Amino acid sequence: MSTRKLTLRSFHSYALMMFGALLLSTSVAQAQDQAKLPNVVILATGGTIAGTGADSTTTVGYTSATVGVEKLIAAVPELKKVANVKGEQVFQIASESMTNDHWLKLAKRVNALLAQPDVDGIVITHGTDTIEETAYFLDLTVKSRKPVVVVGAMRPSTAISADGPINLYNAVLLAGSKDAIGKGVLVSLNDQINSAREVSKTNTSTTDTFKSTELGMLGYIQGNKAYFYRQSTRKNTVDTEFDISKLDVLPQVDIIYGYANMTRAALDAQVASGAKGIIQAGVGDGSIAAQMKTPLVEARKKGVIIVRASRVGQGIVARNGEANDDELDFVVADTLNAQKARILLMLALTKTKDTKEIQRMFYTY
Ligand code: DGL
């Protein structure tokens, strides 16, 4: 073989070798970069973020909870840039159908995963109707300081300008953010970060529906970064006294809604069905209508814990304000809305029936 051909062949093999080495070093570098990213597990539960509509302009009247977690993840390839993501479908429901059993299953799975050293944070995809309740239940039962971010969407995945993909991307970024450690369970939609305790759904259908109104959101997610400006002063996650690890059922606590001309029928039915606690979402400062005082006192005498909350949505329900709570042996909900007061009372009743202890819990969490 001529020298020229030999030189050409050795050049080719040299070039191939160098290309191989480059490829190898690039893939090693990429693997090293990927290894530096946080490990985030996405637990999917259903909701609009997993919903589909008849066509791209359907933003109400669509089918919730139809798209599986792997498809949700595949729809946002950018997730790989901010975290190593794994998905689990814990259940697939429209969140108006959430139950205590779902909460116990979800909280136990979250705690099991966060106990793993190779899990840095968790995202829970969820219907928006009861996101605030699930988030608060987890805020009181997750035993880790690692980030837990609950996320949803107001438009189904098939809609023009669906908000699910960007909400999911931001939630994963937040769950992998060191700044989110120790902030309690977070709810993140619409580029905003809210605490589980304060946030509520405030509009039936717009994308900016989640607000913490007077007590305020915690921060923003902007340009691939989470910005925190405040945090809740109330105890949460590792600082709570509640342990659901051995619980398979939660005490029945129901809510009665206050309105002019209300009757005792709903209260009597809930007590008769076995309620261990009643939250009254009362008018104003948790006021009790004259016709409701006797039935509430009767319920209390049967051992049912009565908590005065308000239907108003903001502000403190003051102890001994609109009712003599000391004399009636009632509890007040502080600033918790009725649906969150129900969650705290359920967990409180797994520990005690002492109303002074329960009142302490309402001033602590
Ligand atoms: N069915 C409602 C739910 O699953 C849809 C609302 C939503 O997820 O945005 O909560």
What keywords describe this structure?
365 residues; alpha/beta; Rossmann fold; 2 domains; eight-stranded mixed beta sheet; 18% strand; elongated; binds D-glutamic acid
Can you offer a commentary on this structure?
There is one protein chain. With 365 residues, the protein is of the alpha/beta class. Helices cover 35% and strands 18% of the residues. It contains eleven helices and 14 strands. The strands form three sheets. Strands 2-1-3-4-5-6-9-10 form an eight-stranded mixed sheet, with helices on both faces. The chain has a four-stranded parallel sheet with strand order 11-12-13-14, sandwiched between helices. Helix 5 (131-141) runs parallel beside helix 10. It is elongated, with a radius of gyration of 25 Å. The protein starts with a helix and ends with a helix. The model has no long low-confidence stretch (mean pLDDT 94). Bound molecules: D-glutamic acid. Residues 47-48, 64, 94-96, 127-129, 152-154 line the site of D-glutamic acid.
Task: Say what the CATH topology of the largest domain is.
Answer: Rossmann fold
Count of individual domains = 2
Distance between the termini: 85 Å
Residue-averaged pLDDT, rounded?
A: 94
CATH architecture of the largest domain: 3-Layer(aba) Sandwich
* Bound compounds: D-glutamic acid
Q: The biggest beta sheet, please? A: 8 strands, mixed
Sequence stretches where pLDDT stays below 50 over 5 or more residues: none
